[in-house]
Write a structure and sequence with these properties.
Elements lengths: L2 H19 L1 E6 L3 E8 L2 E8 L7 E6 L8 E6 L5 E7 L7 E2 L8 E2 L12 E7 L5 E9 L17 E8 L26 H34 L4 H30 L8 H25 L10 H33 L6 H22 L19 H8 L5 E2 L4 H7 L14 H5 L1 H13 L4 E3 L7 H6 L7 H23 L6 E6 L39 H23 L2 H6 L2 E7 L2 H21 L8 E5 L20 H9 L16 E5 L6 H14 L6 E5 L4 E4 L4 E4 L7 H19 L6 E3 L7 H14 L1
Helix pairs in contact: 2-3, 2-5, 2-6, 3-4, 4-5, 5-6, 10-12, 10-19, 13-15, 15-16, 18-19
Length: 772
């Protein structure tokens, strides 16, 4: 009689066991969820639409990527029926019907909801051993409009990879249900091809959006601050560093497509990526062509330079677009892992604003800050020799008047020769070496070569064969080196002494010489010197004549410089370049242009270490420049205009734009009575223009005045102090003012010019040592 109760107990126990035996998991992507429930030999999969998009079709596949993965795709037909289409694809292309799938899927009408705002489609397959499985999902918004299993599908709108754990206990009451709260999203670990995509994105973003803009910005400003180094730094950043990074990024991108068994160049992102890479290579080739294939006679930048700049900005702009499409479209479409975090977009747009600012600076550089080309400071590394070698001993003592010493102390007659102090190179080499030694023994740390008036023009004027010109000019440097080595050997000291290549102005080659008047014949100036009439040295409003004069003076100075620079032994013996007694602003500009040209070539051929520190020293016979401010012979320019021509861009005077600025500015061949006023103006200019502490070179005449026509010296009124006392006091006052108002001068080089001999330098050396 108790059998019915026993049967009931057994039945309830079986039902309970069946309920407990259900295992499964539910995971969600951004538009749909997948529920997998294992019930013995059968596994049920239910695909839920979250209602965010209109349902066209839903599908899933047993694997981590589309290629080779068995897929089940379902859609609702117009009559309410559901098509189950089992497909596969060899790559990331539209999957085709699989006539022999590994597991046949059977549609489950009881668990399917076709009329709900959030439809769900269900099917079952035989259970296998794959209980912790990665599955891909796809959600399409366009219905195939056909019940045929092989109907064409439009590309999915959402795609992803989920991780289902089918070993978890599952309540039978939850089958076919997805709670609106507590939805989990167990995103699968990154696949190998997805890791490659991330690496591709990092390398290409760093290469195109960090190194390329940085290299462009460096080129824009380094050509101002490091005119002889900028190209090397530019190509290292743009090609040597960015190039490998970009190439690795491209290889990783291609590799990710191959790893995913995808199709190359099947979307805009991939096509633009290759196009931008090709443009980058073209840009590098164009830059190399511009740098190595030059028209040496060009007056301004050629068109290809502007094309290079515009193409560079275009490549960077396309790269910005490419990065955006990569993270915003390509990543979610290709990986199906959904949009990247918002922080990525914030970072991109922030960086894009910075890149646009860089582009604006490149196209429209500011004009009123010292880091631009308006106030151009030469931050070229030739400063370092001044600063490192000399700063610890500033003021550094320069020698005195070499030519007048040769005459006054050593009895040479050189005043009437066009070669002046260069003449002993030919007929009195021992005397020249002795003069150098006298200054070194007096305490000079820098001796000047006897090349002040030495040029092809003056050698011709002296009646010597022009074929000997280069040898004579270089021999002058060699003799200064002999004196230097002799002094060091005699003294057995380790102290350094330096050789400055003395380079007078074009006016020093004329007869009568024109250092103190600046009256140059055409094309170097407006009018030939007239000893009996009015003389003019200003072009006034004639900018064309001014430019032609600059070009002519540039050719003169470059030709002379090249004689020394083209001989390695001579060039290596020189420590500094001293452009001296320059009377005209246009000649200052021409000298800067010549040095820029020469240093660009030296930098390319030999390297940075072969460049020399240099200064431009101007003459102020009556406290002002000899240059007239007006064409009709008006008042003369002051030192301000000479400083502007030395340290600023002067667009009215040169078409070249970029010019080196001298690491030092000097005053020479000027009476001591004007020095304090002039040096104060130099300090004020340095401070006002925020220059990076150029050196100040001071070497005034002794207390005599030179007449250019008669080649005679006349004594000035008796001074209250000796020359050495005046110059020593000036050095002390400059240092005291620097301490009081802040440093503007990097250091001081101080010595003498005409009519200052070894005794003057010796006394000055004693005074300066006492004042240290």
């Amino acid at each position: 009689m108790h059998y019915p109760l026993a049967y009931l107990f057994i039945l309830l126990s079986a039902l309970h066991a069946a309920a407990v035996d259900l295992t499964g998991d539910t995971q969600c992507g951004s538009t749909m969820c997948i529920q997998g429930v294992v019930n013995g030999s059968s596994t049920t999969y239910i695909l839920f639409s979250l209602g965010k998009l209109d349902l066209g079709w839903m599908g899933m596949g047993y694997g981590r990527q589309m290629s080779g993965t068995p897929m089940v795709i379902l859609w609702i037909n117009s009559g309410g029926s559901v098509t189950v289409s089992q497909r596969t694809a060899p790559a990331e292309i539209m999957p085709t019907l699989d006539s022999n799938p590994p597991r046949n899927a059977t549609q489950l009408p009881d668990l399917t909801r076709t009329s709900s705002p959030k439809p769900q489609l269900a099917f079952s397959v035989p259970t296998n051993t794959d209980t912790k499985q990665s599955v891909i999902y796809a959600f399409g918004t366009t219905n195939p409009d056909s019940s045929a299993e092989n109907a064409d599908l439009l590309q999915h709108s959402d795609y992803g990879v989920l991780q289902l754990d089918l070993t978890k206990p599952f309540d039978s009451n939850d089958v076919g249900k997805v709670s609106s709260t507590g939805l989990s999203s167990n995103i699968a670990p990154l696949l190998p091809f997805q890791k490659l995509i991330i690496a591709h994105a990092i390398f290409c973003t760093v290469g195109f959006l960090l190194f390329l803009p940085s290299g462009a910005l460096l080129a824009r400003y380094l050509r101002t601050f490091f005119p002889t180094q900028w190209f090397r730094i530019h190509w290292i950043v743009q090609f040597a560093i960015a190039g490998p990074v970009i190439v690795v990024g491209i290889i990783l991108g291609v590799g990710s497509v191959s790893k995913a068994k995808g199709v190359h160049l099947n979307d805009d992102h991939k096509k633009w990526g290759i196009a931008i890479f090709v443009l980058y290579l073209v840009q590098c080739g164009l830059g190399a062509f511009i740098h190595f294939v030059k028209n040496q006679d060009r007056k301004r930048r050629p068109p290809q330079n502007f094309l290079h700049a515009v193409l560079g900005l275009f490549v960077i702009g396309l790269a910005c677009y490419q990065v955006h499409s990569g993270y915003y479209q390509e990543w979610p479409t290709t990986t199906g892992r959904g949009p990247l975090p918002r922080a990525v977009s914030i970072l991109f747009w922030t960086w894009l604003v910075m890149v646009m600012d860089i582009a604006a600076v490149l196209l429209f550089p500011p004009t009123m800050t010292y880091i631009t080309t308006w106030v151009v400071e030469s931050a070229i590394d030739v400063w370092t020799l001044f600063d490192i070698e000399l700063k610890g001993i500033s003021p550094v003592i320069l020698d005195g008047g070499l030519g007048t010493t040769l005459e006054d102390l050593l009895g040479l007659n050189i005043s009437n020769s066009p070669l002046w102090s260069s003449l002993p190179v030919i007929n009195a080499a021992e005397a020249l070496v002795k003069a150098h030694l006298l200054f070194l023994q007096a305490g000079a740390k820098i001796i000047s070569t006897s090349t002040y008036q030495c040029s092809v023009e003056t050698i011709e004027a002296a009646g010597l064969p022009t074929a000997n010109a280069q040898a004579i000019m270089r021999e002058s440097v060699r003799l200064a080196k002999v004196a230097k080595l002799t002094f060091l050997e005699e003294r057995k000291v380790s102290d350094k002494v330096y050789i400055a290549l003395s380079l007078g102005p074009f006016g020093a080659t004329l007869k009568p010489t024109q250092e103190f008047r600046g009256v140059y014949p055409p094309p170097f100036g407006p009018r030939q010197f007239n000893s009996e009439g009015e003389n003019v040295n200003s072009f006034g409003p004639d900018k064309t004549g001014e430019q032609q004069a600059i070009d002519a003076l540039y050719e003169f100075h470059l030709k002379r410089l090249s004689v020394f620079a083209s001989d390695p032994e001579t060039w290596n013996a020189i420590d500094f370049l001293a452009f001296e007694t320059v009377p005209l602003t246009r000649e200052v500009v021409a000298i800067r242009k010549a040095v820029t040209k020469l240093y660009d070539k030296i930098q390319e051929d030999l390297g940075q270490e072969h460049l020399k520190p240099w200064w431009i020293s101007c003459v102020f016979p009556d406290g002002n420049s000899p240059e007239q401010s007006r064409h009709d012979g008006g008042s003369n320019l002051g030192i301000e205009e000479l400083l502007v021509s030395a340290f600023k861009d002067v667009p009215d005077l040169t078409s070249d734009g970029r010019l080196l600025t001298p690491p030092g500015f000097g005053i020479n061949c000027t009476s001591t009575r004007y020095l304090r006023t002039l040096t104060r103006e130099v300090q004020l200019f340095y401070r006002r223009e925020a220059l990076s502490n150029p050196w100040l070179v001071i070497y005034p005449n002794g207390n005599e005045v030179y007449d250019e026509e008669s080649h005679a010296w006349s004594t000035q009124s008796k001074a209250e102090k000796t020359w050495a006392d005046e110059v020593g006091a000036l050095a002390r006052e400059i240092r005291e003012e620097e301490q009081l108002h802040g440093t503007t001068v990097g250091g001081i080089i101080i010595g003498g010019c005409c009519k200052t001999g070894p005794n003057d330098i010796s006394t000055l050396s004693t005074i300066l040592h006492k004042n240290r």
